[in-house]
Each structure stands twice: as structure tokens, then as C-alpha cells.
């Protein structure tokens, strides 16, 4: 942890300015240890609130004391070097880490004021409420139609074929895929291009009426055109959903999100408005990482 | 400052930095030379200033091309982005200072036309005073850019050198000369134009200082002081 040092004097003066304006910023511990997160962890109209979240994989303390709000209709980017804990944190939000036997999570994560880690929480509806899109498109080996229809069927969201048809169409429309696949709904989803498959996966997530969408490097396997379509889609989906996206592309984070959170060695170093983080980051570590002076 | 993982990017940024320094050096020399031509009443020196303006313009084009290339290739962010954007703005101010020196040079060529009598040295005192100030400001701005030392930039922002006030005082003095001898009106107008050009040079130096503060501290203080 000795690489995580202190703020530059200029950053300290900026911090003092922010503090004097009563903006919520916790000062760093300047003794050499990494202190609290820099920037405001709070969001307007928060949908997700995380307090003192710690994750352990066996003895490995993977993420440490994360405090972060994610706002309704907000896209937040989680950035940081490989192994910094951003994906682990993302997976905590819909308890995907439960599938890892050695994983232990403590702290508090609430979505719409409901404790995600409550003993009474049923993870099946939770994962419908908090959908997830992965790095590699992973359509089911079924038809395009069945990829979308599967979720609503098992969650009992449609009682008739007509209702199911309606959900399939509206989900594909929301994902911007309808016009491209409407004439081949019964062909295999795996026959689509990579970008189309990823939008199919997003449509599949949307079909079960989520409130939050988690995206773990959703464009890393896609070409620039498919990436642009997904980014356009993210912006459209923001009107209805809360979105957290893990990305290794700084430019993508800058383009798609309203807030950005920088993770380093399992800690949340800085969080703030994306425009601020990418033009005038408060923490030296953030600056080093986003400008490519890392490692 | 730490190096970028991609060392080529460091090379490109430092190349850009040195191009700006070279351009600033050339503009400083233009301003010095034009003041020398005034001091010596030597038209041929002023003509050199006019001819060399092309080099200043070429630097502007070269630096703009570098800026575009870095933006396209590196997509800079944070302090790198601020540096590239600030440089693209600073270069405009340097080029404008170059234009002002040419304006002054042309007026000097007119004033010291061998067909007419040389201007009364008393009338020229205000120009000399403002010229010294503008040269000092340009050196400070260039030093601030080179070293990143904001003390120099803040000296300019604080208005320790007030070209505007000097210009106002100069107008008053020139009016006094004209009131005493109406035949001096033509000369006085030339001198006022030179003083105005020097005042603009001072303002461009303040702009450069503002961009320096943005570049180093991320604070945009334009129109706020």
C-alpha cells in the first residue's frame, strides 16, 4: 500500500477550496496511507447506496470500505487497473459474487432502500431487478425470440403468447435491434454478429423489467461501429434505468457516464462528475491512471 | 512528473513544448527588434521585423498541426488535455503579438521616412516606456510557460505591470503635446497607434498567464479578475 501516497500540494489547496464551499469531500490521510475517497460519494436521487462494503476472497481482502451512491437515471463508470476490484464491486450489486464459494461480503448495499444482503433477499428476482451484461456476448443457444422470451417466462411476466410477443418486440426495440432481426426471430441468436449479440443480451436483460443494469466491459469484444451502437443505446437506456459500467476505455467512460469512480488496489480513490475527473482529477493516482502514467 | 507508459507521447508533448518556446523566443526577438528600430530610428531593422512575421505564422501552423495530431492519436485527458488545449490558445496570443509587432514596425517605417523629418524624441518616450513593459511581460509569460512556475503568471494577472494605465497616461501626454502644437497631430496619432499595439501585446501576455494557470492548476480564471 505504500505506493498510494499523498495528494500534491495543488490538490490539497483545491480540496480546501471544495471543503470551504461545503462540498462533500473527505480529506486524505496525508501520512502516506490511503485515506478516504476523494470527491463526493453522494448522488442526486440515489437508487443504490453502498456503505463500508468489503469483499474477501478467502484471505484476500479484494475491496475495502467502499462507500458510494449511484443515482437514478445515472450512468456511472467504474474505472481502474486490472485487479483493482471494480468488477468485484459491480458483482456485489446483484450478488453475483454469491456463486464464488470463497467470497465473503460485508457492509451494506441497498437498492431502493432494500438491503441486498438481507437474509430474506431472494436473489432470483434481485437479478431480474439488477440485470447484468458481460464482457463477452453470451446468448443462449436458442432462437433470438427465445433468448428474450426465456426471462419473462420464468419470472411469470407474460401470461399469453401475445403478451410474450409484445415483450420480445419492445425489448428488442429498446435495445435498438428490432429492425435488424424482426424478420429472423426464430433463427439462432448465436448467428448474429458480435455487436448484435451484445445488444441481444441487453434486450434479454431489459425483458425482465430491471431497474438497474450492470455492464462489465460490454464493448471490449466489439468493433468501433458496434461499440458506438452500444454507447448510443446506453445513453437512451439512461432515461429509464440506472446503469453502472465497468470499462477499460477511458474515452468510453468519458463519453457515456455522468459520474466516474476510480478504483485502485481495492479502494475507491476518487469519484466525481465525469467531466471533472477527466479534465481536472483531484487525486494524483487518478491522474496517473487516466493519462497513462501508470505502472 | 511521471512518464507516460507510452514514451512516444512524452516525446510528442515535449516537442510541442519546445515548439512553443521557439515561437515565443522568435516573438520576443521581434518585439525587441522593433523597439531597437524605434530607438535607432532605423527603418531597415523595422523592415526585417515585417519580413520575419512569416516565420511566426509558420510556427503557429506547425504547432496547430502538432496539437491536432496529439488530440487525434492520444486522446489526452486531465493535465495532458489541459496542456494541449492551453498551448493551442497560447499560440494564438503569440501570433497576435507577432502581428502587433508588425503593425508597430510599419508605423515606424512611416514615421522615419527619409522624406520627412524624424519625430521629436520627447513624443516617443511613452512608446519606449510601454515597450519596455510589454517586453518584460512577454518574458515573464514565456518563463512561466517554460518552468510551470505560476508565481510569474500571477505577477501578470495581478496587474503589477499595467499597460492599460500606461496607455491612458500616454494619451494624456500626447494630447498635451498636440494642444501645444497642432502640427504634431499626425505624429501623435501614429504614436498612439503604436502605444495601443503595445497595450494589446500586454493583454495577450495576460491571456497567456491565464492559460498557464488553467494548464497547471485546472482553474479557469478568464474574465474573473
TrEMBL record, chain B:
Primary localization class, coarse: cytoplasm
GO biological process: intracellular phosphate ion homeostasis; negative regulation of phosphate metabolic process; phosphate ion transport
Domain PhoU: 20-107, 127-211
InterPro entries xrefs: PhoU, PhoU-like_sf, PhoU_dom
Keyword match RNA-binding: no
Compartments, as annotated in UniProt: Cytoplasm
GO cellular component: cytoplasm
Keyword entries, A-Z: Cytoplasm, Phosphate transport, Transport
Family: Belongs to the PhoU family.
Subunit (UniProt): Homodimer.
Task performed by this protein: Plays a role in the regulation of phosphate uptake.
Name this polypeptide is given: Phosphate-specific transport system accessory protein PhoU
Organism in which the protein naturally occurs: Methylotuvimicrobium buryatense (Methylomicrobium buryatense)
Gene: phoU
Amino acid at each position: 500500500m505504500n505506493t498510494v501516497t499523498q495528494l500534491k500540494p495543488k490538490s490539497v489547496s483545491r480540496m480546501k477550496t471544495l471543503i470551504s464551499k461545503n462540498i462533500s469531500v473527505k480529506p486524505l490521510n496525508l501520512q502516506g496511507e490511503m485515506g478516504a475517497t476523494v470527491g463526493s460519494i453522494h448522488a442526486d436521487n440515489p437508487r443504490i447506496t453502498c456503505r463500508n462494503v468489503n469483499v474477501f476472497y478467502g484471505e484476500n481482502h479484494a475491496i475495502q470500505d467502499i462507500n458510494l451512491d449511484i443515482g437514478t437515471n445515472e450512468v456511472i463508470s467504474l474505472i481502474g487497473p486490472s485487479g483493482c476490484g471494480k468488477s468485484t464491486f459491480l458483482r456485489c450489486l446483484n450478488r453475483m459474487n454469491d456463486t464464488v464459494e470463497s467470497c465473503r461480503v460485508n457492509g451494506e448495499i441497498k437498492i431502493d432502500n432494500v438491503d441486498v444482503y438481507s437474509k430474506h433477499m431472494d436473489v432470483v428476482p434481485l437479478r431480474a431487478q439488477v440485470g447484468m451484461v458481460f464482457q463477452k456476448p453470451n446468448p443462449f443457444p436458442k432462437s433470438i425470440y427465445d433468448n428474450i422470451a426465456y426471462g419473462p417466462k420464468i419470472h411469470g411476466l407474460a401470461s399469453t403468447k401475445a403478451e410474450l410477443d409484445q415483450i420480445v418486440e419492445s425489448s428488442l426495440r429498446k435495445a435498438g435491434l428490432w429492425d435488424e432481426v424482426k424478420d429472423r426471430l426464430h433463427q439462432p441468436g448465436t448467428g448474429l454478429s458480435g455487436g448484435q449479440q451484445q445488444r441481444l443480451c441487453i434486450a434479454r436483460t431489459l425483458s425482465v423489467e430491471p431497474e438497474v443494469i450492470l455492464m462489465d466491459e460490454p464493448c471490449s469484444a466489439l468493433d468501433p461501429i458496434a461499440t458506438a451502437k452500444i454507447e448510443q443505446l446506453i445513453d437512451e437506456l439512461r432515461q429509464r434505468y440506472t446503469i453502472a459500467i465497468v470499462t477499460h476505455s477511458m474515452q468510453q467512460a468519458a463519453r457515456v457516464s455522468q459520474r466516474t469512480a476510480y478504483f485502485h488496489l481495492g479502494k475507491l480513490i476518487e469519484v466525481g462528475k465525469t467531466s471533472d475527473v477527466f479534465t481536472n482529477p483531484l487525486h494524483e493516482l487518478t491522474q496517473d491512471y487516466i493519462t497513462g502514467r501508470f505502472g | 512528473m511521471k512518464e507516460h507508459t507510452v514514451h512516444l507521447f512524452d516525446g510528442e508533448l515535449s516537442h510541442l513544448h519546445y515548439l512553443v518556446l521557439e515561437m515565443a523566443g522568435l516573438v520576443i526577438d521581434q518585439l525587441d527588434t522593433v523597439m531597437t528600430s524605434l530607438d535607432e530610428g532605423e527603418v531597415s531593422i523595422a523592415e526585417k521585423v515585417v519580413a520575419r512575421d512569416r516565420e511566426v505564422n509558420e510556427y503557429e501552423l506547425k504547432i496547430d498541426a502538432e496539437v491536432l495530431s496529439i488530440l487525434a492519436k492520444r486522446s489526452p485527458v486531465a493535465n495532458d488535455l489541459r496542456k494541449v488545449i492551453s498551448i493551442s490558445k497560447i499560440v494564438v496570443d503569440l501570433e497576435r503579438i507577432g502581428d502587433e509587432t508588425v503593425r508597430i514596425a510599419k508605423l515606424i517605417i512611416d514615421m522615419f521616412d527619409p522624406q520627412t523629418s524624424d519625430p521629436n524624441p520627447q513624443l516617443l518616450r511613452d512608446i519606449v516606456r510601454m515597450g519596455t513593459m510589454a517586453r518584460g511581460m512577454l518574458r515573464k509569460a514565456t518563463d512561466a510557460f517554460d518552468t510551470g512556475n505560476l508565481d510569474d503568471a500571477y505577477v501578470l494577472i495581478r496587474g503589477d505591470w499595467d499597460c492599460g494605465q500606461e496607455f491612458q497616461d500616454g494619451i494624456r501626454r500626447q494630447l498635451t503635446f498636440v494642444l501645444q502644437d497642432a502640427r504634431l497631430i499626425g505624429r501623435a496619432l501614429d504614436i498612439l497607434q503604436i502605444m495601443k499595439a503595445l497595450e494589446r501585446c500586454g493583454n495577450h501576455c495576460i491571456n497567456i498567464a491565464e492559460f498557464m494557470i488553467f494548464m497547471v492548476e485546472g482553474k479557469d480564471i478568464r474574465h474573473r479578475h
